[in-house]
Structure to design on (1056 residues):
C-alpha cells in the first residue's frame, strides 16, 4: 500500500494547487462567507474559541464528583463484557478483576490517561480541511445514526445510501460543518455487513472533510483503517490520526465486546476514540445531575484509560450524550435544563483530565422541524458551545430523538452553527471595532445607516442568516407565507442540484473500489 | 386616599388567609409545579440564581468601553430635547449645557448614580408576588408594545382591550412569569388618550403580580401613580416601589420630552425607571458590538443619572434592547450573535455600575411561531439568562419583531421560561443529589427505572415540558400530527376558559373605577 501513499502525496499537491484561491483557514473571505449565512462556497476552518466557557460546578463540587467516581470505580467496578483480552490487560495493569467486572484501585485510570494527548489533529484528505480536536477548538459534525429520514417531499421513511450520500454532500458544502461525521443516516438498503464499506467510501468520495469510522464490529473498523490507508498511506495512518470514531459505553457501567473490539482496532492504529456513555438519565444513570455526572466520569475514566492500555498516546475523547427520559412515555427528552447541566459539568470534568470533550449538538425530540425542534436544538447547542465542547456530533440534521435525519432541519441547523461560529469570535476591540469616529461623525439625533464606518463594515458586521425571514409581514405574505422549513427545503434542493464532487485522485478511487468489491465478494449476500 | 391604604391592609390580610395553602415563595410544592412544566396553579417566586454568569469582556475591554463612553459623554454629549427643566437640573449639577446638548464632565454621571440602589423590591398587591429586582434575582415579564396580535384562530389583526386582558390573565396563570408587564399589546380599540387607564386597571383587576406604568405622556404616568395609590395607599407608594416603567432613549444620544416627562413623574414618586437605549445596531448605533456598547453605556449613564437628579435613591435599571438591522431589508434581526454579545457585555457594564440590568427576552423576527421564531427566541433567552439579567421584558409572546403578541408563542415561551428557572437552580450536590446509593444498588448492566432513588425523586427530578411531544412517532401520528403551536393553542384556550380572577377588595375596585370614569369624562372623546 505504499503506492497509494505516493499517489496521495501527489493528490495532496494537486489539491493544494487547485485550492490556492480558497485560503487555508479562511481569513477575511471565509469570514465574509460565514457572515453571509452559508450557502455552498468558501469553507470555514474549525472554530478557535476566543471566548471563555460557562461552568456550573465549583472546585468543591468537582472534587466531590471525582471522589465519588473513584469510589464507583473501586467498589462497584465496570464490566468489560466477553473480552478476555481486555480483562487480561486490566489484570496486567494492576486492576482487581473479578469475573468480567474490573475494580480499579484509586488513581489507576487517571494515571493511565496521562499518556493521552489533550489535543490532536485529525487529518482530512484535503489538508485545508484537517481539524484540531481539543483545547480551544470546536468542530461541528452532522447527525449520527438515524435509520429514518424525513425527506424533501415530507415523507418519513427508511434511509437509503442515496440519502447517506446526500447528507455527506450537504455537509461538504456547509461552511460551518467542519467534519463529515459518520453514520449520517443508516443506509438500510445496503446489507448490514457491507454497509460500512459504502458509508466510508461516500465520505471519502463525496467530501474532503475528515470523517468517522465504523464501530459495529472489529472487522469493520479494520476495513475502515484499510480504506484510510488507501487514501493517506500506511505510514501516515499509523503515525497520525485520520479517523475519530464513536465508542459508546453500554451504561450503566458496561463496555461490550463490539465496542471494545472497535476501540482496540482504532487505538492500535493510533486513531481516535470518543468514549461516550450514552445516557438517558433516570434509566441508564441516576435521576439526578450529580449522580449522572459521577457515573459518566467513572465510565469514561475506565473506557478512555483502556485505550491507553492498548496504545499509550492514542487520542481519546471524554464523551457524553446527555438526555433525560420522559416520566410519561419513557422516551428521551432534549433541550431541558438537566442535560444542559450534565453537559456543562462533564466539560469541566474533561478539562481537569486534559482530554478533548464531546457532547451535545442540535438535539430534539420533535417529529417535525417545528418550534419544538428549534427550541430544543437551540437550547442544546447553546449549552454545547458555551461548555467549550471540542467535538460536536449531531450538530445538524437530528430529528425525533435521533430516529430520523431531516434535510430541512439540517439546513436550519447549519445556519445556527454559522451563528455560533461568529459568536465564538467574541467582541472586536480594535479601533475599527470601537467605532469612536462613527459616533463622533453621526452625533445625537441622526442615524448610522450611511456613515463611513457603517459603509466600510456593512458586509461583515452582522451574521446573515440563510433561513430567517426578516422582511415585513406584507412582503412575507406576498411571498407565500413560507415557514422556516419551507425555505430550508428550497435551499437543500438548490445545494444538491449544484453539488460538485471534490477532486479525488483516480488511482485512490480505483483502489477504494477494488477494495470494496473484493470485500463484498467475500461476504454472504443475504447477511443483514 | 388614606382610606384605600386601610382597605389595602385588610385586603392583604384576606389574601394572606386565602393564600395560606400556597406557600410564600414556593418551596417543594411550587418546585414540583414548575417541574411539571407549568399549567395554571401554584406560582413560582422570581428566580434567585444559584449559578454564575457568562461574560464576554475582560477587565481591559470593560475599561476601554467605559473610557470611550466617558469621552462620548464629554465631547459629543447627549440631547435632552424640549425639556428646559431637565437642562436646568443638569446645569445645576455641573454639566456643560450648550443649547439642548448636555456635555458631562468625566465622572459626573457615575458619581450621581452612587445614590441608586443596586436592588429594590417592587411590591405587588399580593405580597407573595412581590419581586426583587437586582442582584441574583431574575424576573420574567411578558411581551411589551405590539399593536397586533396573532390570535387563537390564526388571524393576525389589530389588538383589542380583550386581547390585553387575555394576556394579563395568561401571565397571571403562568407559574414562571413573575411580573404582569406593561403594554402586553396595544388595545387600539380604546382611544389613545384613555387607553392607559384601561391597561393599568386590567393589570390590577385581572392579576395580582407587579406591573408597569404608562410612559406615553407625563399625565398618564401621573394617572398610573394615582391608581397605584388607590391600591397601595399614598404613603406606601411614596416610600416604596410599586411600579417599574420603561424609559427608552431616542438613540443615538437623545432623550425626548415624553420620556423625560414620564421619568420625572416616576422618579419623583420613588418609582423605578428602566433606562433603555432601544438599539437597532447599524441604524441607531454603530455597526460593531464595541461601538454599540459604548453608546449604550453613555446613554444609560446620562439617563439613569438624570433620575438621581430628580430624586436621589429612586430605583433605576440599566436597560438595553439589542438587535441588528438586516442589511437586505433594514428590518431588525434577532437571535444572531451580535445582539447576544451586546447583551452579555452590557450586563457586565451594569454590574460595574451596581445597577439592576434589563435586556433580551424571547425575541424573534418570524411572522409565525415556527422554527425561526423558536431558534431566535431560544438564542436570545439563553444569552439573557446567562448574562445575569435581572428584569426580562418580552419574556413571552413576542413575535414579528415586536409587531405582534402571539397567544401560541406566549404558551411556548412560558414553557421555556420554566426550563430556565429550573436551570438556574444549578446542580444539587446533596447526598440525595449525589445518588451514590442508587449507583451501588443498581450496579453494572441493569437500569435505574425502578430503583428506590428514582422512585423517590421521580416527580421532581426533570423539568416536564407542557408543550413538547416526546411520544413515539406512531403515537404522535395517531394523535393527529400536531405541531408545537397547535398544542400551545389548545392549552391557551383551556387556560382562558378556566381563568379565575384573583381577589380584589371591592372598595379598591370601586375606587379605581370611579377614578377612571372621572378621568375619561374629562377627556375629549375623539382624541386618538
Amino acid at each position: 500500500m505504499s503506492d497509494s501513499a505516493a499517489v496521495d502525496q501527489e493528490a495532496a499537491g494537486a489539491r493544494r494547487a487547485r485550492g490556492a484561491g480558497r485560503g487555508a483557514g479562511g481569513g477575511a473571505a471565509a469570514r465574509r462567507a460565514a457572515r453571509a449565512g452559508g450557502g455552498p462556497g468558501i469553507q470555514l476552518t474549525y472554530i478557535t474559541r476566543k471566548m471563555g466557557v460557562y461552568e456550573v460546578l465549583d472546585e468543591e463540587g468537582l472534587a466531590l464528583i471525582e471522589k465519588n467516581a473513584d469510589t464507583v470505580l473501586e467498589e462497584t467496578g465496570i464490566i468489560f463484557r466477553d473480552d478476555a483480552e481486555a480483562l487480561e490487560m486490566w489484570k496486567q495493569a494492576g486492576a482487581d478483576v473479578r469475573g468480567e467486572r474490573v475494580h480499579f484501585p484509586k488513581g489507576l485510570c487517571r494515571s493511565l490517561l496521562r499518556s493521552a494527548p489533550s489535543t490532536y489533529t485529525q487529518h482530512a484528505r484535503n489538508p485545508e480541511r484537517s481539524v484540531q480536536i481539543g483545547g480551544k477548538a470546536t468542530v461541528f459534525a452532522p447527525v449520527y445514526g438515524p435509520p429514518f429520514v424525513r425527506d424533501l417531499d415530507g415523507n418519513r421513511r427508511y434511509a437509503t445510501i442515496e440519502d447517506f450520500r446526500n447528507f455527506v454532500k450537504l455537509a461538504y458544502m456547509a461552511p460551518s460543518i467542519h467534519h463529515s461525521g459518520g453514520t449520517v443516516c443508516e443506509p438500510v438498503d445496503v446489507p448490514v455487513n457491507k454497509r460500512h464499506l459504502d458509508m466510508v467510501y461516500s465520505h471519502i468520495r463525496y467530501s474532503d472533510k475528515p470523517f468517522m469510522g465504523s464501530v459495529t464490529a472489529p472487522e469493520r473498523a479494520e476495513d475502515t483503517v484499510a480504506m484510510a490507508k488507501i487514501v493517506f498511506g500506511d505510514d501516515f495512518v499509523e503515525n497520525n490520526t485520520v479517523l475519530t470514531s464513536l465508542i459508546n459505553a453500554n451504561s450503566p457501567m458496561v463496555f461490550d465486546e463490539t465496542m471494545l473490539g472497535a476501540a482496540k482496532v482504532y487505538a492500535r492504529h493510533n486513531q481516535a476514540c470518543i468514549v461516550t456513555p450514552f445516557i438517558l438519565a433516570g434509566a441508564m444513570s441516576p435521576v439526578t445531575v450529580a449522580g449522572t455526572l459521577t457515573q459518566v466520569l467513572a465510565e469514561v475514566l475506565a473506557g478512555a484509560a483502556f485505550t491507553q492500555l492498548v496504545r499509550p498516546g492514542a487520542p481519546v475523547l471524554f464523551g457524553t450524550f446527555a438526555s433525560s427520559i420522559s416520566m410519561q412515555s419513557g422516551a428521551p427528552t432534549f433541550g431541558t435544563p438537566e442535560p444542559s447541566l450534565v453537559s456543562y459539568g462533564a466539560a469541566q470534568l474533561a478539562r481537569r483530565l486534559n482530554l478533548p470533550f464531546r457532547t451535545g449538538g442540535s438535539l430534539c425530540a420533535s417529529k417535525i422541524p417545528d418550534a419544538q425542534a428549534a427550541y430544543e436544538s437551540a437550547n442544546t447547542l447553546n449549552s454545547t458551545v458555551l461548555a467549550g465542547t471540542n467535538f460536536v456530533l449531531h450538530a445538524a440534521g437530528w430529528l425525533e430523538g435521533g430516529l430520523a435525519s431531516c434535510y430541512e432541519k439540517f439546513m436550519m441547523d447549519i445556519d445556527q452553527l454559522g451563528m455560533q461560529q461568529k459568536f465564538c469570535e467574541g467582541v472586536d476591540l480594535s479601533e475599527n471595532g470601537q467605532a469612536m469616529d462613527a459616533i463622533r461623525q453621526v452625533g445625537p439625533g441622526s442615524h448610522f445607516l450611511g456613515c463611513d464606518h457603517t459603509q466600510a463594515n456593512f458586509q461583515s458586521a452582522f451574521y446573515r442568516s440563510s433561513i430567517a425571514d426578516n422582511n415585513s409581514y406584507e412582503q412575507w405574505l406576498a411571498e407565500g407565507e413560507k415557514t422556516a422549513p419551507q425555505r430550508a427545503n428550497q435551499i437543500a434542493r438548490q445545494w444538491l442540484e449544484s453539488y460538485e464532487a471534490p477532486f479525488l485522485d483516480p488511482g485512490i478511487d480505483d483502489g477504494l473500489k477494488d477494495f470494496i468489491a473484493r470485500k463484498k465478494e467475500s461476504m454472504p449476500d443475504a447477511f443483514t
In short: The radius of gyration of chain B is 23 Å. The first strand of chain B starts at residue 47 and ends at 48. Chain B touches chain A through 127 residues (CB under 8 Å).
